[in-house]
Amino acid sequence: MASRLNPYLSFSGEAKQAMEFYKEVFGGTLTVNTYGSFGSETPPGYAEKIMHSMLETTSGFALMGADNPPGTEHKPGNNIAVSLSGDDPGELRGYWDMLSDGGTVAVPLEKQMWGDVFGMCTDKFGITWMVNISEQQT
């Protein structure tokens, strides 16, 4: 298998709901492992929390996520965003519509000065997404 780089998102108890939401948005196969699924001692309240999950889509996307481990502070920041780009307006607008629904739009999805259609939003789980639709080459 070739090396690849995957976004890995951290959550404070809502990883399962978030990853299921992303599966609705992108489709694909979601694998979920809870802290309790490995049969070892599980910290109180963590049996059903997500230790690791991975969404792999037919478009080639891979997105990982988990609830923060016990004793780890969840500190969301503005130092990362997940970027989606391509030249299929229908597909990318569909992702945008679902990701921005219930979230906050920072930059509306519209034509920008560099010629592409671009938008930025933060979804209902606090994850920032950038969508860039390039003009199809003829």
Automatic annotation (TrEMBL):
InterPro entries noted in UniProt? Glyas_Bleomycin-R_OHBP_Dase (IPR029068), Glyas_Fos-R_dOase_dom (IPR004360), PhnB-like (IPR028973)
On the tree of life, the source organism's domain of life is: Bacteria
Q: Taxonomic lineage of this organism?
A: Bacteria, Bacillati, Actinomycetota, Actinomycetes, Kitasatosporales
Outline the extent of the Glyoxalase/fosfomycin resistance/dioxygenase domain: 5-131
Task: Give me the segments passing through the membrane.
Answer: none
**UniProt protein name:** VOC family protein
Q: Which is one Pfam family of this protein?
A: Glyoxalase
